[in-house]
Amino acid sequence: MRWPRVGILSLKPKRKRLVALAALALFVIWGGAGCSGSHASTATDGVTMRLLGDNFARSQIVVQAGATLRLDDTTGGYHHLCLGRDMACNLHAAGPEDFQGNGLTISNGDVRSVVFSTSGTYEITCTIHPEMNLTVIVK
Ligand SMILES: [Cu+2]
Prior knowledge:
- This protein is of the alpha+beta class.
- It folds into two domains: 1-42; 46-138, Cupredoxins -  blue copper proteins (Immunoglobulin-like, Sandwich).
- The chain contains one helix and nine strands.
- The protein has one helix spanning 2-42, and strands spanning 46-50, 60-63, 67-73, 79-85, 88-89, 104-106, 110-116, 120-126, 133-138.
- The strands form two sheets. Strands 2, 4, 5, 6, 8 and 9 form a six-stranded mixed beta sheet that branches. Strands 1-3-7 form a three-stranded mixed beta sheet, with no helix packed on it.
- A hairpin with a 2-residue loop joins strand 4 and strand 5.
- It is globular, with a radius of gyration of 22 Å.
- The model is unreliable at 26-44 (pLDDT under 50).
- The structure holds copper (II) ion.
C-alpha cells in the first residue's frame, strides 16, 4: 500500500511544473496569435485575383514585392491552391508559405490574402480544376 502513495507524492512537484509549463505555453501561443493578427490587418495594399467556378479570372497577374494578393472567391467555387502546375503541387517550390506544400483550400464566398515578399515568377495551380493555372509575377 505504500508504493502508490510514495509514487503520487513524488509526482506532485512534476505535475506542478507541468501545469506551470502549460500555462506558459498558452500565454506564448495567445501572444503570438494576437501579434500575427494585427500584422495581417495592416497589409491592405495589393491586387485582387477573382476566382471563378473552375478557373482564375486571368492566367497572369503582376504584384509588387511585399504586396498582398487577394484571392476573391466570392462568386467562385471550392479550390485547392498550391505552388505548382497542371494540378500538381511542387512540394519543394519556394513561395508564400500559404501556397507551400499542399497549399490552401478556399471555398465559395471566401476572400484570402497572401503576401508575396520576394520578387520572382510563381506558378500557382489548383489540384481540382485542370485549366486552373496562374502565373504570379512579383516585381
Ligand atoms: Cu479550382
